[in-house]
Every structure is written in C-alpha cells, then in structure tokens.
Amino acid sequence: MTARQRRMTLVAVIIAGVGLAGALALRAFRENVMFYFDPSKVAAGQVRPGEHFRLGGMVVKGSVQRAAGSLDVRFVVTDFAHDVPVRYDKVLPDLFKEGAGVVALGRLDAQGTFVADEVLAKHDEKYMPPEVARSLKQGQAAAALKSGASN
Amino acid sequence: MDWTWFHRFGSPPHFYRIAGKLIPWCAWLAAISGVAGLIGGLVLAPPDYQQGEGYRIIYVHVPAAVLSTMAYATMATAAGVGLIWRMNVAHAVAASCAGIGASFTFLALVTGSLWGRPMWGTYWQWDPRLTSELVMLFLYLGYMGLRGAIDDTARADRASAVLALVGVINLPIIHYSVDWWNSLHQGHTLLKFGKPSMPPSMLVPLLLAMLAFVLYFAAIVLVRARGEVLRRERNARWIAELLGAPS
Question: pLDDT for A126-146, tens place per residue?
Fold first, then answer.
C-alpha cells in the first residue's frame, strides 16, 4: 500500500465511521427528532397525559367553528385514520385553512381536546398561479358532478 | 484514463492561469442569468394561489439554500483531494469555499425566517430541516475558526480537512430531513422523482436564479483561491516571472 492509498483509506474510514455513528444516533433519537405527533400516535397513547407536545395533521374540511365576537376557534385535525379536536384562542396564520396542513403546540385536556397555545400553518410543496388553481378546482367539481350524475 | 489534467491542476501556476481565464466567463454569465432570473421571478412569474406575492422570496431562498450545501460538498471534496494527494491547490480551494458557503447558509436561514413569519406564523422552530441547516452554519464557522487558529498552513490544511470531511454527514441529513421526519418545512418541489410541483412560468426563473448562484459561487471561489495560491506561493519563482521581475 502506498502512502497515498493509505490516506485514501483513512478518508474513506472517516466518512464511513461518521456516517455509521450519525445513522445510529439518529435512529436512537428518532422520536425526539420528530417535529410533531400525528393523531394516530396520540390515539395510540404515545403522548403522556398533560405533556406539552406538537400535534400535526390536516384540518378537517367543514370542522372550523369560530365563536362570534372573540378569537376562539375550534377545529379537528386528522391524519385520515384518527381525529383530534383542537381549541385555540389566538390569531391564526394566513395559510391556515380547511383541508391544509397545520402544526399546533399545546396539551390534551381531560376530555381529549387539544388546547393549543400556538398554531402554525404547514405549507405544502406545490406552487401554481391562482387561475390554474381555480380551473383545477372547477375541473374537479365538474368531474365530481359527472360521476355523481352517472351513479 | 488519462489523469494528466488532474495533476496539472495541482500545479499552482497552471491553476492560477486557468482560474484567471475562467473568472470573467463565470462572472458575466452569473450576472446575465441573475438579472434574467430576478426579472422572471419578481416581475414576470404569476403569483401563487396560496401565498400570493410572498412566495417570490424563493427566488433568493432556494438558490441560497442549494448553494449552501453545494459549497459544502465542494469544500469537502477539495479537502479530501488535498488530504489524499497532498495537493496544495486543492487545500486553497477548500479554504476559499468556507466563507462564501457560510454566507449562503446565513442568507438561506434569514430569508427562510422572513418567509416563515407570515406563512407559517413563526420566525424560527426547531424543525429538522431548519436545525440541520443551522448546524451547517456552525460547521462552516468551526472550519474557519480552526483554520484561523493554526498558524502553520500545512497543519491547518490537514486539521480543517478532517473537520470538513466529518461534516459531510450533515449533507444527506439536510436533504432528506423533510422525508425522514415530520417537519414544518415543506417537502421537495424540484429534486424528486416525477414532475416538479411548479409550472414552467415559475420554474424557469428559479432555475435561472440557481444557475446564477452557481456561477457566482464559482467566480468568487476562483478569485479567492487565486489569492490563496499567491499567498502560499509568495516566494516561488513563477510569481516573480509572472510579475516580470528579474530572477
């Protein structure tokens, strides 16, 4: 082995070693690295009672109820397997809407309602001009009508 | 395979000359594609259906974020080549990448934070993507600090090269953080299988802006590496000859 090959091996060993150590460490901390719990994990009892945690998922369409004359809002977060009702009393971000992703920080109360102190909107990776979004929606609505008529 | 070109690059006068020829090309093309990308992105591209005009920060944020990792990959590769082949020029290139890479990382973090406030509702969260990007900023700063702390150039080269190589582990973490874990940061729009989730009217300016950042990075690294080579070779004959001094 020449000196150069030895150095080459050393570099390969450094990268492989650090990669292995990193992979093991990340496996060990898997749950701690998770930014939020989804409703299925909450239903499975992975959150201790009274614990402060983040809940993430989709806002169920038609579930947002605002109380007249205050900021109080109630909505349901779902991962399409389980649902968690959420209560919040502060200003919601602009991108918060029904059918969009959301991450809320708070804790479960005795009735199983998630009381949030902070609600963040989770943006998806899709970008499109408003006209395209509108015509897509119309296309979907037309398709839904058609399939509804044929049934 | 013929490796002469590779070893020729390791020769400081050759590198100095080639880099000098490449710099104006990179710089001019960067300026042209940068202006085209910014006009395309800030003026011509349509607003987004959800974010309105606010999404336009991606024309700076995305190229800065991509370049922050690309600069690190370049730095680590150069450091590895320098370590294995004892190539002084490669170490000079690695040293030149750190400052500009740190600047790109900082820019990506700041623009992301400014966007996050109106869109997510927060300037900062300890999200996997955000945290791993911040770790990379500290890796860059650590690299520069380590380099600055050692007076002997050869020792500084070797020590900092090992640090750069160790930090490579962070690159896949940054890239896949949005796939591996639940994160607040959205998933991949461009670098994924299938079609990008973006129409051409928005995508083309973004690609132009990315090209501009890449070329700008290349130009700056070459300028800095040339300076670094001059500093390292300050007593060499070829520099005296270059300056026309009687030898």
Answer: 888 777 777 777 777 666 666
- Residue spans of alpha helices (H) in chain B: 4-9, 12-39, 58-85, 88-119, 128-149, 153-166, 170-180, 200-232, 237-242
Checking ipTM against 0.95, whether it exceeds it is no
Q: Do B201 and A126 touch (CB under 8 A)?
A: no
**Residues B84, A123: C-beta atoms closer than 8 Å:** no
Q: Chain B window 62-81: which residues touch A at a Cβ cutoff of 8 Å?
A: 80
Strand partners, A115: A87, A107
Total number of domains constituting chain A: 2
Chain A with chain B: Cβ pairs closer than 8 A = 120
The rounded Cα B36 to chain-centroid distance in angstroms is 21
Question: Do the domain assignments include residue A20?
Answer: yes
In a domain, A4, yes or no: yes
A17 lies in which domain range? 1-33
Contact between chains at A95 and B183 (C-beta distance less than 8 A): no
A113, part of any domain: yes
Question: Using a CB-CB distance cutoff of 8 angstroms, which residues of chain A are in contact with residue B188?
Answer: 125
Predicted TM-score (pTM) of this structure? 0.86
